[in-house]
Amino acid sequence: MNPILRQRLVGTLVLVALGVVFWPLIFVTPDQRDPISVQPMTDKPDIDRSPIAVPETYEVAVTEKLPEPAKIAEEEQIAADAETRIDAENIDLVDLPQRADLESALVPDAPLAGEPLIDDEGLPVFWVLQVATVGSDARAAELVQGLTDLGYTAFSTPYTRVDEELFRVQIGPNAERRKLLLIKPEVDSVLGVDSQVLRYVQ
User: Fold this and answer.
1) Does pTM surpass 0.70?
2) In angstroms, rounded to a whole number, what is the distance separating the alpha carbons of residues 150 and 161?
3) Partner of 146 for a Cys bridge, out of 26, 57, 93, 100, CB 3.0 to 4.6 A?
4) Residue 112 pLDDT > 70, yes or no?
5) Going by C-beta distance under 8 Å and a sequence separation of 6 or more, which residues neighbour residue 45?
């Protein structure tokens, strides 16, 4: 076949194919379609915004039935703080006897001299001996460590008086008040205080 004729035939076929494709797009009117209708929005649901009551928990139910914790009369605690205040920088416990040596003077299995073990609220009764009131945490920790090294169970608790932070150093707690009274004279002699036996409260 003549090359020129063949090129013309191919070009004609390409034009016919393009016409088939683009003819509907250019000359055919599209079908009319129904307009899109938008439905109105529904009303917002009513929300109950009233406060929700706090659910009753087991802890709340039990707490209401617990007895009031033991407390020390404010006047008694203030007096104990004043009688045991130590302002000296150095506190030397070298002359304080070991706890075991002091308690060895107690008669084994001796009665508790009528001391109650349970108070009227049904709470156990424990006692502490307040031996010092100091003005810094470091001095309180040093004193507690010194007492612990001698066999005494000691701890410190912070409290604020007016605008001053102080620390109470106490020995105990102990269910036998007489054991603390046995320690008291030795503590008073070494520290130069009037240590006080108080009810242990948390």
Assistant:
1) no
2) 30
3) 93
4) no
5) none
